[in-house]
Every structure is written in C-alpha cells, then in structure tokens.
Amino acid sequence: MNDRTGLLPLGDEFSPDKLRLARCAAGRSLAEIGELLGVTRQYAHKLEVNAVPSRAQLARLCEILGVHESFFFAPRRGSVELEQCHFRSVRASSQTLKKTIAAQVEMFELLIDELDKEVAFPTVSFSMLEEPVSGIGKIEQVAEKFRREQGLGIGPLSSVTKLAEKVGVLVVNLADADDKVDAFSLFNKRPLIVRNTAKVNPCRQRFDLAHELGHLIMHQGIETGCRHTEDQANQFASALLMPRASFAAEFPPMRGKYLNWSALKELKLRWKVSFKALIYRAQSLDLLTAEQAKSGFTYLNRKGFTKHEEFDELIPMESPMLVQRAINLLDYSSWKRVLTASGLASDTVSMQYMIEVPVSPLRLVQ
Fold first, then answer.
1. What is the pLDDT of residue 80?
2. For residue 90, pLDDT beyond 70
3. What is the pLDDT of residue 30?
4. Among residues 120, 58, 109, which one has the least CA distance to residue 85?
5. Taking the model in full, what pTM does it have?
6. Of the four listed, 11, 87, 184, 330, which is most buried by Cβ atoms within 10 Å?
7. Are 245 and 252 in contact (CB under 8 A)?
C-alpha cells in the first residue's frame, strides 16, 4: 500500500468479489457496510464493483468482516452455489439467509484448502449412486449396502458424526445460525455436512446427519428440497439408523390397544432415535398399523413432545472432531500460515465455526 496517500498501489489487485463474499458471510447489508465505513450505500456498492478502498477503509473492512488484508488480494477460488446445497427447510428459509450460510461455507472451505496442505484428511470411502433411486425397497438396499461397505453390522450406530467423518465427510458447526435452517450438505471440493448448533436435540441431530448422508449418496447432481427427495433422504436415514432385520426383531408388541412405552423407552435409548422415528420406522416395516401409529403420535403431541421428548437428556450430543484434530496437529507458526493463506481471522474461525484455535505463546506469558 502507499502510506503517503492511504491508497492501494496499482500493483495490488483488490478483489471486489471477495468483499461481497465476506459481507454475505457476515450477514451484513450494503447499507450497514456503508454506515460502518462512514460512506453511502452507493459507495459501498461501488467497492463490490470496481472502486478501491483506502488504507483506512480496508483496515475497517477487515475489522468488520473478520478477515485479514490478504483475504481481499487473492482471487475467489470458486463459489458455493445454492443449487449445490441440499437444504432441508428450503421453503422456510429466505434467499438472503441461504446466501449468508452458503458464503460462510465457502469461507470455511478456504480454511480447509489450506489445512489440506498441512495434514491429510480421510479420503472419501463411500460410493455415490449414478442413477436416480426409486422405491422404498431400493433405498433400504442402499442403506444396507452402505452399512456393509463400512463394516457397521446391524446394531445401533454409536456416533453418526464419527461415522460421517470416518468416510471422508467434513462436519462443521455454524454458530448462531437461524433456527429455520436444519443441517444441510453439499459436495463441492469434498463432501460437507453443515450443522446448525441452534438445534440441540441429540436424536434430531443424529437423524439430520443420517439424512444428509442420504443426500450425498443418492442425490449427486440432483436438485433437492422437494418433498420427493426429502422423503427419500428421510427413508435412508431411518433405514441407516434402524436396520430392518434387527429393528423388527427388537420392536415390542402392543399392550392391548396401547404402545408399550416402557419398552419403547429402552429402544429409544439403545438406538438413540426419537419416539417419533421409532413409530415411523415401525409403521414402514408393517410392525404397526396406520391407526396404531396415529395413536402413538397423538399421545406424543398431547404430552408436548414435538421438538423435544422425554429422555432426550440421556442421549449424548455429538460433536465433529476431524477439523479440530487437524488444527490441533499444527504449531502456532503453521496455524498462522494457514490463516494468512486463507485470509481468515483466528476469531472468525473460533466463533463462527466453534473451533478451538492455537494461541500465540506470547499471550500465555503471565
């Protein structure tokens, strides 16, 4: 930069596209950026087209958006498009919200690109369908094949998150995401599942992750979000979490006209799924009639068990660890190289993606 004028020298190429990316990821409007910079909205817009910020404006942008100056002087490597993302609550989420989350994921991928140069992440070890799947029976077979390929047997999965990471999927938390957005997935440079930490139900969390694995396996190159593809991903999740042979053998018989809730409690805790998921699965396998399942859902609704159920607190929440472990392998100087190359600020990584980051040794001196 030119210290005398406060302007960027002609040799440096400021990337308006990267400014737009960082602004979207921060959930800031052009009007907000203009106000924080002390300029008009129109000038803030020009910065995302062809105007070049002054030194003071650049420093302020870095502060506002949680990036280093280096972020703005590297070309955008490839965008995350909404069409690539398997959003679940697509009808309830605004385009602006989805663009913000897609930008946050793209920023995360910048971090992963640099970490990939320092550590070796697991390779993708699951096969994806080349043709569209049709029919519940076929989806059952896809889930059973996945279990066989991964050596999972037919018992409960101890951790869906660990399973996803083991087969090469990166699982990332997004802090403070709108609760209208459930987990979603995409396969850009590598498969990725994004979790919303506002969703704090362990059973829902596990089902969401299994659902997204279904999208990654069955729906590559297929636009999702419609009822058909969402039902398919739900059917895959149900079959993956509760394999039909072992589940059918364990599902308790009715007590007269009523479900055996004490036995269902034990089944819930063993398979780590919700009562509703147990009932849906039982009905799909003809272990319950439609009327019997309806009576079970009515009972749960009457008890107020919609977002949370009884005994959820006895099932542990799962946390992604793959990226955290990769960062833990780095010394501080290596971590600084990753940050400089990606352009992200350390606080952005820790707060936005809920990752513990290396601390400068100088800051540890008392």
1. 74
2. no
3. 97
4. 109
5. 0.89
6. 184
7. no
Query: pLDDT-based confidence at 99, cuts 50/70/90?
Result: confident
Of 266, 284, 274, nearest in space to 308 by CA? 274
Give me the helix-helix angle, 95-115 and 332-342, nearest 10°.
Answer: 130
Confidence of residue 175 (pLDDT cuts 50, 70, 90): confident
Calpha distance 228→200 (Å, rounded):
27
Give the Cα separation of 294 and 25 in Å (integer): 43
354: helix, strand or coil: coil
Whether the per-residue pLDDT at 210 is higher than 50: the answer is yes
Burial of 11 (0-12, 13-18, 19+ CB in 10 A): exposed
The mean pLDDT of 308-314, rounded to a whole number, is 95
Structure tokens at 55: 């030194």
Residue that has been written with the tokens 């919303």 in this structure? 196
**Confidence grade of residue 180 (pLDDT, cut at 50, 70, 90):** low
- Rg (C-alpha) for the chain, rounded Å, is 24
Q: Which helix (H) or strand (E) holds 337?
A: helix 332-342
Backbone angles phi, psi at 99, to 5 degrees: -65, -35
What are the structural domains, with CATH classification, of the chain? 1-76 (1.10.260.40), 79-242+323-366 (1.10.10.2910), 244-314 (no CATH)
Q: Which residues contact 131 (CB under 8 A, 6 or more apart)?
A: none
DSSP 75: -
Instruction: Specify the residue for token string 């519940």.
Output: 136
d(C-alpha 124, C-alpha 24), whole Å: 30
pLDDT above 70 as % of the chain: 90
Helix axis angle, 202-218 to 227-241, nearest 10°: 110
Q: How far is CA 77 from CA 17, 220, 299, 308, 342, in A?
A: 10, 21, 52, 41, 11
Interacting residues of 319 by C-beta distance below 8 A, sequence separation 6+: 161, 173
pLDDT of 4 higher than 60: no
Q: Which residues contact 277 (CB under 8 A, 6 or more apart)?
A: 203, 207, 238, 241, 242
